[in-house]
Amino acid sequence: MVTEALNRRLNILQSSGTCPSDLLDVIRLLVAHANETDLFKKELRSQPFTSPVQEPQTQQQVQQRAQQEMPVVQYPEDMQQCAFRARENILMAAESSLRSYVANLKNVNDIATAASSKKLREIKKCISEEMKAFQERVIQGTVEEMEIELDSLRMKWLETIDKEVSRVKEEIHQMGIGLRKELRNMAEGYGDFMAKGFKLINLGQFEEIHKLRADSVLAAGRLELVEKQIVPQMEIEALRERIKMIEMRMEKILGCSLKS
Description:
single chain, mainly alpha, 6 helices, 89% helix
C-alpha cells in the first residue's frame, strides 16, 4: 500500500536523524493527512451508501403532500444511480488527492535528501579544515620545540668547546712559561759552569777541570733529556693551527645561530 510505504519512509527519516526538525514536522503532517485520506476512502468503500431518500411509505406521504402543494417534478435519472456516481466521484477525488499528496511527499523527501547531503558535505568540509588546522598547529608547535632544544644543545656545545679551547690555551701557555724558566736556569748554570771552568784553567787545577768536564757531560745529558721532553716547535705550531680552525668553526656556528 502507498500509505504503508509512506509510513516506512517516515520511520527511516526519523531514525536516521539527518532530516531537520522543521522539515520533519511538515512530513509528519503530510503523512498523517495521507493516512486519514486513505482511512476515509476505506470507510467509504466498506460501508453501503445510505441514500437520504426516506422509506417508501414516508416517501409516498411526502409525495402526496407535495402533489397537493406543487406539481410533480419528474427526475431524469434514478436517485440511487446519482448517489452511486457521487460516491464514485468522491472516491476518485480522494484517490487523486492521495496521489497528489504522495507526489508532494516524494518531492519533499527529495528536497530533504538533497538538503541532508549538502549539510553532510558542509560538515565534512568543516571537519577536514579543522583537522588540517589542528595538524598544522601540532606540527608547528613540535618544530618550534625542536628548534628551541637544538639551539639549547648548540649553545651548550659551544660553551663546552670554548671552555676546552681556553683550557688547552692555558696549558700551552703554562708549558711555555715552564720551559722558558727551565731553559733560563740551564743557560745560567751553563754560564756559571763555563766561568768556573775558565777560572780553574787559569789557576791550573787539572783535577777540578776533569770534575767540571764530567759535570759538563752530565749537564749536556740532562739538557738532551730535557730537549727530548720538551714539545717540539712543529707540534706547537700544528696545535696552534688546530686551535685557529676550532675558533673559525665556532665563529661560523655562532653566525648561523644568530641568523636563525
